[in-house]
Amino acid sequence: MEILALDAKPRPKVGSRQSYKDRRKGQIPAVVYGHKEASVSVTVPLDGFAKILKTGTRLVKLAVGGKQELTYIIDVEHDAITDAILHIDFGRTSMTEKLSVKVSLRTKGTAKGVASGEGQMDILMNDIPIRCLPDRIPKQIEHDVAPLEIGQGVKLKDLHLPEGVEIDGNPEMLVITCHKAVEEVIVTPDQVAAAAATEPEVLTAKKEEGEAAAAAAPGAEKAAAPEAKGGKEKKE
User: Fold this and answer.
1) Into how many domains does the chain fold?
2) Could you list the residue range(s) of the whole structural domain that residue 165 is in?
3) CA torsion angle 76 165 170 144 (round to 10)
4) Average of per-residue pLDDT values in the chain
5) CATH code of 153's domain
6) What is the dihedral of CA 64, 70, 74, 80, to 10 degrees?
7) What is the pLDDT of residue 189?
8) β-bridge pairing 119-123 and 174-180
9) Positive or negative: CA dihedral 43, 46, 52, 53
10) In which element (H, E) is residue 180 found?
11) Most buried residue among 50, 88, 109, 200 by CB atoms closer than 10 A?
């Protein structure tokens, strides 16, 4: 994997307000940590970091205060609405140290189950956890899903990885599944309104029939009178 250089500036002030000011100036707040050394808060230029992201590389030779450190991009925080870069985590590393990172998954082809018109394919993991040396980190993991039929799936252990790269996790975890498509039933607003208007009418009719039958029952009034009288005597 290509190693690109990026200049960083020490960030003496931290906090949400300062982060907002830094981003307004085109500087992204970041932190560098690892190798049992103290964490360092820095800022990096947005335009320079954006170019690095486009290359797909994860390795960055970061220059901080005249000192260069080999780092890798651990995490990039984005705004949920605008997708703007809010914060970056850099981890210190060396070319002889294996790293645990996540690499995006790219599928090729169309699954047989989907091509038949009866199946649906679901990708359960968009990022694949791997472990390898820094110069072995692939830009992405590709997998051909064309042979996939309904009822079949792809596990982590089934992925074809580049030489020197291994799965960092449970190899039995499902990554992709192909199953029979579920027919979607669309209910129109008119159907919902018709169902809501019909059900209460049936319940009301039954209720009225029951009340009429009770009122017409022989001796209903006589049976009620003693109860009232008895209640009065008890009160006195």
Assistant:
1) 2
2) 101-180
3) 90
4) 85
5) 2.170.120.20
6) 40
7) 76
8) antiparallel
9) positive
10) strand 174-180
11) 88
Domain final position from 138, 158, 180:
180
User: Measured between alpha carbons, how far is residue 96 from residues 46, 89, 133 in Å?
Assistant: 29, 21, 7
Cα separation, 204 vs 236, whole angstroms: 41
For residues 106 and 73, membership in a common domain is answered with no
Report which DSSP code applies to 181.
P
Q: Which residues contact 192 (CB under 8 A, 6 or more apart)?
A: none
Beta strands in 11-145, from DSSP E residues, in sequence order: 27-34, 37-45, 59-64, 67-78, 85-92, 99-108, 119-123, 127-132, 141-144
Q: In what side-by-side order are the strands of the sheet with 141-144? A: 141-144, 99-108, 127-132, 166-167
Q: Is 221 within a domain?
A: no
Q: Which residue has the tokens 């047989």?
A: 112
The answer to whether position 18 is within a domain reads yes
Asked if pLDDT for residue 5 goes beyond 60, the answer is yes
Does position 183 have pLDDT exceeding 70, yes or no? no
Quick one: DSSP state of residue 156? G
DSSP 183: P
Whether 85 and 49 map to the same domain: the answer is yes
In a domain, 170, yes or no: yes
- The mean pLDDT value for 215-236 works out to 49
Instruction: Tell me the angle at which helices 220-235 and 189-216 cross, rounded to the nearest 10 degrees.
Output: 80
